[in-house]
Amino acid sequence: MSHEKIEEQKRIYNDWSFLLSQQVEPLKISGYSIEDSLVIKYLYFIHQQKQTEYIPIPFFRDFYNNLIASIRKGNKFKKNRNLTPINLFRTLRYFNVELQDFYKLQVPSSFIEKIKEKTIDESGDCLAPWCEGFGKNGTLKKAEMGRVSNYKRVSICEKCNLMYGYNKKNNTWENIDKIIQDYKVSSQNLYGIKKLDDFYKCNNLLSDFRMNFLIGYLLNHSLINIMEINEFKRNLHQKQVQLKKLIFKTKSVPYLRSMAREQYGWNDINFFFVYHTTEIQRYLFFDLKRDRKINKSKELKIILKKRVESFLDDILKKNRLLTLEMVAQGIDINVKTLRKYGLNEIVVNAINQQKGEQLLEEKAKFKIIINDYIKNCIEDNLRPNSRVIYKLLGTTYITMKKNHPDICDLIKTNFNMTNGILHTNMLNEYKIKYKVAISKIINEGNFKLAYSRINKEAQLGVDYLRRYPELRVFVDTEIKNCLKQ
User: Which of 216, 243, 276 is the last residue of a domain?
Assistant: First the structure.
């Protein structure tokens, strides 16, 4: 494995050395930029490999097609669609081809012409004579439908909401929902119709389903005017809200009709009238995907949140150190997904809580160590040393100042207190020695109490009285008291 890794690194080094060499001229195809020229050569290389070898579709298809689309449209490459050195190297590695050989590859003009070919113009116009977009290009808008029967692409007329499918066999748009066809069948019997019953009597060539489907559309676009129209318009907004809830569950018209009958008691005409309103059609073909995406995102967030909370509980019980990466890996997602759904805040709060608890535990241990050290210093009459205390604490002043500034203040306060106690004890010890020395000198009948004599008798240096004024005051006071006696 090490040998293979080294060989891979050598090859990467050689590839970059070749690219950066001054002897290598940039690839340039007439009429194209350097970047596009490189992409065309790359496409030709893949094309050649596809003719001789099976290529795993997931690896190349989307990337290959996106590059072709970008070249044809003359667009700048979008994110994740550009041909980077890494993409190029990975492809060449896959086919075990050297970069130098790739550069020597000649692209025939026939292939370049093929790349330049545009796809057939699929922009269409509405075929309904009553539509504002009749005979005008650009009124059809791609719908969120997926595949419908034999049509690769489905569009909706923005003016009249008719559904069209593009037939690639004859390069034409066809009315999928058959409303135009059904209208032509029924149009000769529409004149003078004022009631639904009369409409049904005059139009017996269509099934009940297709008839009601057609009536709902005709009523919405004022192609017929019957007395019952006000009944259908009553509480229309409420009905649209109700139907949207059903559409969120299914887009199938037969299922929607059945569910509306069971849940809301609608008859077929009521249902199809609401179904063909512009608001419902817009929602069905253009806005439903957005709502489902939002709902799916909410549901996924709830699921991931429960998984995160469960994982955090388990880790916290084991008292293991938390990180964002650990939590993401633990629930089989990445940190980017955690942040996308705002779950990183839950993890960060748990991390901060854990750090807070650890800091409190650490602080309690530090206080015990400090108290023991100060106690020993006082008992052994030793001045406290900062190097010693931080060594005992297992850290440095800088780290302690960053994580526990209050502990640094505590150490400073304890040191000052301990030094004060030791200083007072020392002075008291010296006072006792001076008092004994003065008493001894006077008891010997010697009333000449010079400082030098007293220091000598007390076995203390002369500088003690100079360094500690309070000792000199004590000695002077003690001499006076003794002389009075």
Answer: 276
Domain match, 149 and 202 both: no
Sequence letter at residue 39: V
**How many structural domains compose the chain?**
4
* Residue of 157 and 94 predicted with greater confidence: 157
- How many Å is the Cα radius of gyration of the chain? 46
The segment with the largest mean pLDDT, out of 58-72, 217-231, 326-340, is 217-231
Residues 128 and 45 occupy one common structural domain: no
Number of helical H runs and strand E runs in the chain: 24, 4
Cα→Cα distances 458→147, 466, 472, Å: 110, 15, 13
Tell me how far the alpha carbon of residue 471 is from its chain's centroid.
Answer: 72
What is the pTM for the complete model shown? 0.46
| 212 part of a folded domain | yes
Phi/psi at 131 (5° precision): -85, 145
How many residues does the structure list for the chain?
485
Q: 158-172 in b/e burial notation, b at 16+ Cβ within 10 A?
A: bbbbbbbbbeeeeee
Assess if residue 385 is contained within a domain.
no
**In whole angstroms, what is the distance from residue 302 CA to residue 300 CA?**
5
Distance CA 410, CA 403 (A): 14
Rounded-to-integer distance, Cα 46 and Cα 54, Å: 11
Q: Render pLDDT for 388-440 as a digit per residue (tens, 0 to 9).
A: 888 888 888 888 888 888 888 888 898 899 888 888 888 888 888 888 887 88
Residue where a domain stops, chosen among 142, 177, 212: 177
Distance of CA 385 to the CA centre of its chain: 50
Do 208 and 264 sit in the same domain of this protein?
yes
CB distance 161 to 278 below 8 Å:
yes
Q: Is 14 found in the same domain as 107?
A: yes
Question: Do 127 and 175 meet the contact criterion of CB atoms below 8 Å apart?
Answer: yes
Q: Which residue has the tokens 């992409």?
A: 39
Q: Is residue 106 part of a domain?
A: yes
Residue 431 placed within a domain:
yes
User: Is the domain of 95 the same as that of 12?
Assistant: yes
pLDDT top residue among 369 and 301? 369
Question: Is residue 354 packed enough to be buried (19+ CB in 10 Å), middle (13-18) or exposed (0-12)?
Answer: middle
